[in-house]
Amino acid sequence: MRHRCPSDTAEVAELLITELVTNALVHTDQGAEVSATLAADRLRVEVRDYASRRPRPYVPTADDGTHGRGLMLVQALADAWGVDAPVQTGGKVVWFELDGALGSRAYSGAYDAGPA
Prior knowledge:
Elements: H1 7-27, E1 33-38, E2 42-49, H2 70-77, E3 80-84, E4 92-99
Antiparallel strand pairs: 1-2, 2-4, 3-4
Helix pairs in contact: 1-2
């Protein structure tokens, strides 16, 4: 993804993917699947797990240490996010989208997509 997105978009995406996958692994015991779709103007990432319990963001307290900040980061940094519950397969999909996938929120230079 780094060769197709500006570095700030890729860094935000990597952070949010890490947070969602960590949540799926910590709060379920069945693993997770990650998929990403990159279009000219939007990156969409989906993290699927097999637990039907919907995640709820909360404001962590000082006693929480480093726990409890994942969905707060997703809310703060993603342009859109949500939770879908696939009817036939069970579990849930937590997703986020970043606008300007091939342009940057603060990117003003030329972009080289690299070799095709």
